[in-house]
């Protein structure tokens, strides 16, 4: 495995499209930048051609293949960012859980967390380069291969969402309320586990940035399940600590900070709090009303939020939906995206219509303002 730290000392090509970074920082943009969660993946025929029958976690550990998969959608579409092909579940594995199956093919972990005693099996101070160096190698390689075309996203799962996977083994089938029950039944152990995950996530983000990521996103896919009370008690303080911890560690290393995005799905009750939590961008799912979010979020950049199922609509309907979305969000302090990931049987041509419509309509809106 290549030493990504030495690779990162080499100069990367100058960035030719910085729209998404400017939007994230609240600077004026000539058009709305756009990218999609899960833009690299199963809906693209070239993904299957490249991956073949390689297992998912094995794919994630192959920097050359990850680089190819990450760049595929950037070559096909006029996207304003790439996002590294990886998975949020690499963190619990690095901490000590054993992989049983790839996501979507049965229980992911052979040894999920069932009680406080199980936390003794986990380590937050693991050798991160030894365990996750393949992610950082892939980021450095991809940044080089992009040659400045667009910025590269790094990402991680948020502590609560990772905790839910570790306890409920989500791919094993529905285990409703098991993780939330753990929170209220074992509050001290829950704070301990979330703290361990916070430390691991913070280090993971810092190393991704060190390797070449120019913007990062924290995915809290199950945030809404917590409701206002549990979210405020257990998760919101942790999310704040991650944002601060990443920036503090980068400052200590004399590395410039990069924009940070928090995406807390279904946590509509916390938009105002999230906008003050230290992140540059707040991502929104499709159930959030843009005008309402704007009022709550103040001057923070927003990201989202077209319903992913709209990619099954006709091309004209997609264009109309994009136009309506842009009218509500406006063209500044805004990054267009779906409200969650691209669905696996989405027609790539419809994704292209969505991306092009964002650019065309936002340019027209800016020209007319």
Automatic annotation (TrEMBL):
Its EC number is 4.1.1.37. GO terms for biological process: heme biosynthetic process. SUPFAM superfamilies: UROD/MetE-like. It is found in: Cytoplasm, Cytosol. Keywords: Cytoplasm, Decarboxylase, Lyase, Porphyrin biosynthesis. CDD domains: URO-D. It comes from the Eukaryota. It catalyses: uroporphyrinogen III + 4 H(+) = coproporphyrinogen III + 4 CO2; uroporphyrinogen I + 4 H(+) = coproporphyrinogen I + 4 CO2. Residues 33-42 form the Uroporphyrinogen decarboxylase (URO-D) domain. PROSITE patterns: UROD_1. Pathway: Porphyrin-containing compound metabolism; protoporphyrin-IX biosynthesis; coproporphyrinogen-III from 5-aminolevulinate: step 4/4. The keyword Cytoplasm applies. GO terms for molecular function: uroporphyrinogen decarboxylase activity. Belongs to the uroporphyrinogen decarboxylase family. PANTHER family: METHYLTETRAHYDROFOLATE:HOMOCYSTEINE METHYLTRANSFERASE RELATED, UROPORPHYRINOGEN DECARBOXYLASE. Catalyzes the sequential decarboxylation of the four acetate side chains of uroporphyrinogen to form coproporphyrinogen and participates in the fifth step in the heme biosynthetic pathway. Isomer I or isomer III of uroporphyrinogen may serve as substrate, but only coproporphyrinogen III can ultimately be converted to heme. In vitro also decarboxylates pentacarboxylate porphyrinogen I. Homodimer. This is Uroporphyrinogen decarboxylase. It comes from Elysia crispata. The lineage of its organism: Eukaryota, Metazoa, Spiralia, Lophotrochozoa, Mollusca.
């Amino acid at each position: 495995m290549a030493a990504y730290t030495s690779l990162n000392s080499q100069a990367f090509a100058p960035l030719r499209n910085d729209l998404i970074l400017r939007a994230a920082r609240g600077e004026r943009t000539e058009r709305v930048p756009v990218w999609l969660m899960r833009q690299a993946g199963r809906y693209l025929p070239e993904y299957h051609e490249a991956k073949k029958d390689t297992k998912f976690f094995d794919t994630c550990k192959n920097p050359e293949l990850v680089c190819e998969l990450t760049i595929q959608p950037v070559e096909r579409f006029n996207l304003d960012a790439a996002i590294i092909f990886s998975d949020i579940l690499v963190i619990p594995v690095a901490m000590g859980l054993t992989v049983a199956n790839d996501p979507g093919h049965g229980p992911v972990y052979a040894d999920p967390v069932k009680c406080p005693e199980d936390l003794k099996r986990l380590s937050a101070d693991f050798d991160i380069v030894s365990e996750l160096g393949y992610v950082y190698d892939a980021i450095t390689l991809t940044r080089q291969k992009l040659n400045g075309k667009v910025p590269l996203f790094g990402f991680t799962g948020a502590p609560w969402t990772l905790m839910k996977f570790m306890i409920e083994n989500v791919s094993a089938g529905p285990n409703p309320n098991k993780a939330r029950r753990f929170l209220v039944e074992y509050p001290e152990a829950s704070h301990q586990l979330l703290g361990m995950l916070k430390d691991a996530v913070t280090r993971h983000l810092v190393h991704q940035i060190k390797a070449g990521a120019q913007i990062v996103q924290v995915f809290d896919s199950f945030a809404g399940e917590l409701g206002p009370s549990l979210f405020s008690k257990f998760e919101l303080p942790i999310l704040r600590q991650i944002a601060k911890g990443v920036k503090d560690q980068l400052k200590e290393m004399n590395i410039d900070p990069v924009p940070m995005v928090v995406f807390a799905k279904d946590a509509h009750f916390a938009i105002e709090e999230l906008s003050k939590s230290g992140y540059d961008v707040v991502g929104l799912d499709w159930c959030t009303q843009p005008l309402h979010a704007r009022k709550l979020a103040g001057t923070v950049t927003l990201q989202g939020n077209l319903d992913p199922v709209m990619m099954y609509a006709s091309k004209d309907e997609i264009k109309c939906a994009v136009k309506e979305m842009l009218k509500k969000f406006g063209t500044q302090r805004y990054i267009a995206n779906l409200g969650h990931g691209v669905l696996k049987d989405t027609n790539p041509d419809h994704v292209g219509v969505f991306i092009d419509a964002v650019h065309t309509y936002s340019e027209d809106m800016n020209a007319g303002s």
